[in-house]
């Protein structure tokens, strides 16, 4: 707590991926959205490759470009995403020890659980539950290299990061409304290069993972199989997707399906892993899809059919996410983007939600 009390500031959301930069600033009065500004800049030059910042200068230039496009964002304060692939979210258990000793005990426990050396990550944690004989913690660890380079980039253009968070945590904030907050839900974020899987157990994002297969793989497969340029393949993907009435459309469908089947196999693995390992013994009954590629026509229905087929579960509900779920009283016609069109902005909406009325310490 500062001498003059906590100060409320407005921070905008900044979602950086290998393929794009998205910015958003939201203003809410209670749960009503009173204003929203968005912009999306594709990263065409080699700025970020395999989640590594290749050029801080180019990244800074592209962030400035996004802010210039979103003319109304004037704030210097920013809530920024960290890529899934540069972070680890783990549930760990410690014996009952005094609160002051937890910080020092975490590295020993976490070390066995993450694939990079412990001195190369920054950690953040909070207590999930106190059980009779142990303490359950949610720990996030993020690569120091990436974070240091990101902060240097933001500072070089006079932006002040007030919070950095793993993209999946922001995605969950945007999608988990009051109804989903009581369930165990799997969010599947199908982007351009990356599909992320986020298990949200009673409102808490507990497990996250990702695979490098997503919408761009659909486009490449269509282009390859049909011998057409990627631009044309992209159009066919958006207009027809998995719906097929003609022979040409059937070619699009058969190019996309093997890739989507890989994503579905991973959905099954993630669900199995959670249900076998979770201490709570909760069962996933809802899958929420988001990311730009969740708009591929027929994709949700196909996932629903495949996932329920022979799963032994009677009714795993698969649906499209609503990134405006927190804005419960906002009527759809007052939203700046229809829920379907907002799917690609889910993460940045979650970051901007944290930045709206951000309270400094
Ligand atoms: N209407 C649409 N129909 C089908 N696919 C679409 C549509 N609009 C966008 N996409 C696809 O969504 C993808 C971009 O999604 P998104 O904006 O969520 O990705 P990203 O967050 O920038 O990247 P990533 O999460 O992979 O790092 C692209 O592959 C694009 O082709
Ligand atoms: Mg994304």
UniProtKB/TrEMBL annotation:
Superkingdom as given in the UniProt entry: Bacteria
InterPro entries xrefs: ATPase_NBD (IPR043129), FtsA/MreB (IPR050696), PilM (IPR005883)
Gene3D superfamilies, sorted: 3.30.1490.300, 3.30.420.40
Protein name (record): SHS2 domain-containing protein
Species assigned in the record: Candidatus Doudnabacteria bacterium RIFCSPHIGHO2_01_FULL_41_86
Taxonomic lineage from the root: Bacteria, Candidatus Doudnaibacteriota
């Amino acid at each position: 707590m500062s001498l003059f009390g906590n100060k409320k500031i407005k921070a905008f959301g900044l979602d950086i991926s290998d393929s794009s930069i998205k910015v958003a600033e939201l203003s809410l009065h209670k749960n009503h959205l009173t204003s929203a500004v968005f912009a999306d800049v594709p990263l065409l030059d080699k700025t970020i490759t395999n989640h590594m910042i290749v050029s801080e200068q180019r990244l800074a230039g592209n962030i400035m470009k996004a802010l210039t496009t979103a003319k109304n964002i004037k704030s210097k304060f920013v809530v920024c995403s960290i890529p899934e692939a540069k972070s680890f979210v783990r549930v760990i258990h410690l014996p009952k020890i005094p609160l002051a000793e937890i910080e020092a005990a975490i590295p020993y426990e976490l070390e066995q659980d993450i694939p990079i050396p412990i001195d190369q990550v920054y950690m953040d944690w909070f207590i999930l539950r106190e059980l009779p004989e142990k303490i359950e913690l949610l720990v996030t660890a993020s690569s120091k290299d990436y974070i240091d380079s990101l902060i240097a980039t933001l500072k070089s253009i006079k932006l002040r990061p007030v919070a950095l968070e793993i993209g999946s945590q922001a995605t969950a904030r945007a999608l988990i409304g009051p109804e989903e907050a009581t369930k165990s839900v799997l969010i599947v974020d199908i982007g351009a290069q990356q599909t992320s899987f986020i298990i949200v157990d009673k409102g808490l994002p507990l497990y996250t993972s990702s695979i490098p297969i997503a919408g761009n793989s659909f486009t490449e497969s269509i282009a390859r199989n049909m011998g057409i340029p990627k631009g044309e393949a992209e159009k066919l993907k958006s207009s027809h997707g998995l719906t097929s009435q003609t022979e040409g459309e059937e070619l699009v469908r058969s190019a996309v399906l093997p890739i989507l089947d890989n994503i579905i196999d991973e959905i099954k693995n993630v669900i199995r892993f959670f249900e076998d390992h979770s201490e709570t013994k909760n069962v996933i009954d809802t899958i929420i899809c988001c990311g730009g590629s969740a708009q591929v026509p027929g994709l949700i229905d196909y996932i629903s059919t495949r996932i329920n087929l022979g799963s032994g579960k009677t009714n795993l509900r698969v649906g499209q996410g609503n990134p405006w779920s927190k804005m419960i009283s906002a009527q759809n016609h007052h939203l700046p983007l229809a829920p379907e069109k907002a799917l690609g902005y889910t993460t940045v909406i979650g970051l901007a939600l944290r930045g709206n009325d951000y309270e400094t310490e």
